[in-house]
Write a structure and sequence with these properties.
Layout lengths: L1 E8 L2 E12 L3 E3 L6 H7 L13 E5 L3 H11 L9 E6 L14 E3 L9 H17 L6 E2 L2 E6 L9 H6 L8 E8 L4 E3 L2 H10 L5 E5 L1 E7 L5 E7 L8 E4 L2 E4 L43 E4 L10 E2 L1
Length: about 300
């Protein structure tokens, strides 16, 4: 389960994602010192410092996070040889943001923040995965900051000119470099999700259905995940398990109802529009450049192009 905590550091609002794994013998929980209420409530669940690795794990959510959790579980040296992971997804793999996201990555853009180490680890990991899986959409690419303007494209500086895409031909203002491609890259999240699942073999099974609740025994130990394959939630079935990971993006907050107030999952976000263009039918090579565009106050718009 991914808890989203908003924290302040150096006048910047950052989001810290905290993994919460519920199993039949343990509850692993990482929290900030200020979340004492959650700590007190969590004491009602069975705790243990030592446990055998769970053999049946259900991961709820078939996006990039859920698929990554499932992939790394089955490929872990500590995963039991007879272990099994079930990825429970309500529609299809990468059906929401992971099927539309631009997949932009920047290794050093988190300097000084609480998530800096995650920027570095993830960037290096995807470069390795691009060969291991392999990933055909992974590429390192330059990044430009483009301001809106009323006139045509002005003469750029020498370093910008080297990375200027041919398709940038509208009314733009000043342009500056944000990355030269050594620590900036892009990969299509949907491909990563599909490759994670395809390369995991028979230890990973995908189940299409909507999670509706958790089964626990009298000792508050997780024993299964309830799910339904019908649109009205009827005809519930149960996936037996001894551990569950909830990683369903904004839908994760429904898990608040499953644990009777033991965990709090506030969810907030910013609504945006994602437009995906298909490559030219002529198979023309499109320049690989990421643009971060400034806000155009004339139309109240802000966009980025990957």
């Amino acid at each position: 389960m991914l808890l989203s905590l908003k924290i302040r550091e150096r006048n910047k609002l950052a989001t810290l994602f905290i993994p919460l794994v519920l199993s039949s013998t343990t509850l692993a929980f990482m929290s900030s010192p200020n979340h004492t209420k959650s700590k007190r409530n969590l004491s009602s669940l069975k705790m243990a410092s030592e446990h055998t690795p769970p053999k049946k794990i259900v991961v709820i959510g078939g996006g990039i996070q859920g698929a990554s959790v499932a992939y790394h579980l089955v490929n872990s040296l500590h995963f039991p040889s007879d272990g099994k992971v079930t990825l429970l997804e309500s529609q299809k793999l990468a059906s929401a943001a992971s099927g539309k996201g631009g997949g932009f990555m920047a290794r050093s853009w988190g300097d000084g923040s609480v998530t800096q180490i995650l920027h570095e680890m993830a960037f290096d990991m995807y470069e390795e995965l691009s060969s291991a899986l392999p990933l055909t959409t992974y590429r390192k690419l330059p990044v430009l900051s483009v301001s809106p303007g009323k006139g045509g494209l002005m003469r750029p500086s020498a370093d910008v000119a080297k990375s200027l895409p041919k398709w940038l031909d509208g009314n733009v203002g000043p342009i500056r470099m944000m990355g030269y491609g050594d620590d900036t890259a892009q990969v299509t999240p949907q491909e990563v999700v599909e490759k994670f699942v395809a390369s995991s073999g028979d230890k990973l099974t995908v189940c299409i259905g909507t999670a509706t609740g958790i089964e626990m025994n009298n000792d508050n130990q997780v024993t299964g995940v309830r799910y339904s394959t019908s649109s009205d939630g009827s005809g519930e079935q149960v996936l037996e398990c001894d551990a569950v990971v909830v990683s369903a993006g904004p839908w994760s907050c429904i898990a608040e109802d499953w644990f009777n107030g033991i965990v709090s999952l506030p969810m907030e976000g910013v609504k945006s529009t994602s437009i995906v263009w298909s490559p030219p039918e002529s198979n023309e090579v499109v320049d690989a450049t990421a643009l971060f565009c400034g806000e155009d106050h004339r139309f109240g718009t802000h966009c980025k192009s990957l």
